[in-house]
Amino acid sequence: MFAKGQTVIQLFEQLAPKHYAMPDDKIGLQLGSLQKEIHKVLVALDVTDEVVDEAIRIGANLIIAHHAIIFRPLAHLQTDTPAGRLYTKLIKHDIAVYIAHTNLDVADGGINDMMAEALGLTNLTHLEDVHTEKLQKLVVFVPETHHQQVLDALFAAGAGWIGQYSHCSFNIPGTGTFLPQEGTHPFIGEAGKLERVQEVRVETIVTASVQRKAVQAMLKAHPYEEVAYDLYPMDLKGRVFGLGRAGQLPAAMSLRELTELAKQAFDVPAVRVVGDLDRPIRKVAVLGGSGSRYMRHALFAGADVLVTGDIDYHTAHDALAAGIALLDVGHNVEKIMKRGVADYLAAQLAKADTQVVPSEINTEPFQFV
Ligand SMILES: [Zn+2]
Questions:
Q1: Distance from the CA of 112 to the center of ligand 1, in angstroms?
Q2: Cβ neighbours for 62, distance < 8 A, ≥ 6 positions apart
Q3: Which family does the UniProt entry place this protein in (predicted)?
Q4: CATH class of domain segment(s) 111-129+244-329
Q5: Where do you find CATH 3.30.70.120 in the chain?
Q6: Which H helix or E strand runs over 77?
Q7: Which residue from 30, 33, 57, 242 has the least number of CB within 10 angstroms?
C-alpha cells in the first residue's frame, strides 16, 4: 500500500517540524498537492530542471527539497521563463514539491547534526539558540478502573518527559461527581441520577509537538463520554533547538588535516581555507549553507575553526584578525541532507510501498578549474 501525501509529510515533520523554521522562511508544500498516494519520494537539495527530469524518470510524485522554488509572491506565471517552465513541468507531471529549510537546519538530526557527525564531532552545542520547546501541563480526571490504561496511552503518545526522565506524572485520588442529563449514555451511572465516583487526577507534561497526539490518545483510552481535562501553560522550558553546531574532534589535528577530512566527509572537490594550515584544531563549528554571519558565534563557542559555505572576503579578513580559522566547503555541502533525509524517511515508511530515494543529480553550480 502506498502512503498518502499527508502521512509522508507528517512523518517527515517529526524530524523537522515547521515551527522550528526562522520567521519568513519559505517552507512547507510549495507546489502541487499532498491529497494523493505517494509512489516515490525524491529527496533533493535544489529543485533544478535536471532534478525534475530525474523525478519523472524514476516515477517520483513528491520532491522533498531544502531550497525553496518560490521565494517571493509570484507577480505572474509565465510558462516561457525558466522558473515558469519548471513549475509547468512539475504540475503537468503531478509532482508535488515540499520544502524544509531552516527547520531542517535546526532539527535534532538535521543538516547541522549530519555535518557534525560526518566530522566525528562530539559534545555538541548550538551556535545560536533559536527555539525553545513550550511545555504544557495536562491534567485529566479518570476513574480508578481506567487509571493505568490512560497513563499508558499518554506515555505511549510522548507525554511525561522532563529532560532525560520519561513517564513523569503525579496522581491524586479523589471523588468526582456528575449528573448525566437526558439523552446521555454514561459509562458509569444513569441519566438523571447524581453520581459520586472514585477518580484519579492525573498530571503530566506535554510538549507543543506531542500535545495533540497525547490529548487524542488520552481521549481514546478514557472511558467517559465527556472527559474533563485541562491544559495549563508552564514557565518551565523544554528542549532548546538552535542553528549551527560546535563540538570536539576525536583527536586534535592540523587545519591542513581537517581540510582533507572535510573534503572526504562532505564529498567536495575543493575547499577555501582561511588561517595557518599548521595550526592545531580541537574544537570545530559547523553550519550548513551560508555561514559568514556566524563567525562571531563560532568564536564565542570557543571553536578553532568554522566550517561553512559562502564565506565573503570581509568575513575572511575579520576571521584572520580575530584568530579563528575558516573552511569554506561551499553551500552545496548541504547535499548531505539527501542521504540523511532519505534514510530517515525510508525507515519511517518501511511498512508502506512508498519508496524514498536521494537525488543523484549534482546541483553544484560552480566548477573548480
Ligand atoms: Zn542552503
A1: 11
A2: 5, 8, 32, 34, 38, 40, 41, 42, 95, 96, 97, 98
A3: Belongs to the GTP cyclohydrolase I type 2/NIF3 family.
A4: alpha beta
A5: 134-233
A6: none
A7: 57
Q: Is the pTM of this model over 0.85?
A: no
Question: What are 171-177's contacts with CB under 8 Å, separation 24+?
Answer: 171/147, 171/200, 171/201, 171/202, 171/203, 172/200, 172/201, 172/203, 173/144, 173/198, 173/199, 173/200, 173/201, 174/198, 174/199, 174/200, 174/201, 175/199, 176/141, 176/143, 176/228
Query: What is the distance in A from the centroid of ligand 1 to the CA of 66?
Result: 7
Domain 3-105+335-358: top CATH class: alpha beta
Q: Where in the chain is the domain with CATH 3.40.1390.30?
A: 3-105+335-358, 111-129+244-329
CATH number given to 134-233 = 3.30.70.120
Residue-wise pLDDT tens digits, 29-61: 999 999 999 999 999 999 999 999 999 999 999
What's the gap between Cα 241 and its chain centre?
10
Distance (angstroms) between ligand 1 centre and the Cα of 266 equals: 15
- 289-310 pLDDT, tens digit per residue, is 899 999 999 999 999 999 999 9
* Distance between Cα 46 and ligand 1 center (Å): 9
311 is written with which cell numbers? 564565506
Cα 170 to middle of ligand 1, angstroms? 45
What is the CA(51)–ligand 1 centre distance, in A? 16
Using the mean position of ligand 1's atoms as its centre, give its distance from the Cα of residue 365 in Å: 13
CA of 228 to the centre of ligand 1 (A): 47
235 C-alpha to ligand 1 centroid (Å): 34
Measure 35 CA to ligand 1 centroid, in angstroms.
28
